[in-house]
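Form 7-S
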Amino acid sequence: EDHWLLPHLRGRLAALEGDAGEARRRYQRAVAEVGSLRSSVRPALWRAALMEDRIAPYRALVRLLRDQGEIDAAWSVARAAKARTFVEGLALPGLESAPTASQQEGLEILPASVRLEPAWSRNERAAWGESWSDREASSEGSPTSAGRLRALLRDDERLIDFFVDGREVTAWRQAMTRLGSALFDPLAADLAGARHLIVVPGGALNGVPFAALEVQGERLVDRFRLTVLPAAEALLSRRRRAIGSGALVMGDPASGPSRLPAAAREAQAVGTIARGSSILTGAGATEAAFRALAPGKGWIHVAAHGRIDRIAPTRTHLALASGGGEDGRLEVGEVATMDLVASLVVLSGCGTGIDAGLARGDAPADERAGLPRAFLQAGAGTIVSSLWEMDDTAAAALMPRLYSRLRSLAPDAALADLQRDLAAGRVRDEDGVPLDHPYYWAGLLAWGAGFAPPSPAAD
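Output:
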């Protein structure tokens, strides 16, 4: 199943040696091998997974063709690598290949709108001016010709088809540089001598990964500690002293069929660092236990699914285990009414840093709700959360490192130090792979101004 890999690697070598013709031939062979393998797999979900894991030769060939000025050819390869399972499920005239009965397998859990329908009849195809014999001869999954698609566009329409060619980090940095310059270049004189930036976002800036913004060729996190506040008045938490003790650590709650085994390992690792930890995993990591134990704790760590409700953000919740009279949904509206004294709350889960408008989606007055705001309202000092999805195995590798830094650093400083190490490739997962991609570190934010010292509970 890896017959594609050798020609792909040989194509890369040829490209490095400047032999574009040989690179092209090798990449085309690799793409053909992936296509052949994909056509031999019946369940649609398997075909989708197979394509996700073997996208590299398509990206390489797209880059090469684009650089050679063969835009239509590059677009054709790009479309052959993009949303093919969806395309194969379209029962529309003009598609280059007919869905087969075998392609229906594995689609029973997909919405009806993307399931495969019976092939178009010979008469229907003929009505579109297509040769039946040509259709039968076409390869499975071949993209429709660029000319045919262009013919469907009206004069005042433009089709913009984005394809990520594997250099998304470059595009990411360009975007971060432009945004960073727009926001912080006018503040250059004010930032002189600063070491800690406390940002109160407004409007569309809610959700910006400030750590990754670049100003004058330097990431903000490389120059500053960073804290986000919902409003400047959140600074008043600094009048409080840290009085909590011990830690509550939860991981991989039994909240449904989608479990997070690495989150249980994460909880155990974090629990060994924090003194006086209550470590709860699986069926024991219940909402009832959280409500009973969280008040009075100095640190709270929850490695669980975050469920985001953008329509009713007060129903956004951490998915804990049910039991003890609780449904397992620790919702924003419930958290905000709790009485907490934790100097640090870490929400190690997907999208736990996302908030949304309470009354309107765009929230022009920044009337927003989300888990970090709720924990701040409940009395916590600093909340570390993520703006997007988190890989549980990566989180298991990086979160204990955050806590080891808390022996000598405040939470926001500890997070900034960890993000620098991640971006520099100094943190690896359990397989030894560096976690340097912005996906792993840029979305982490420290919310809240914290308490007056001391910080609780580290060995």
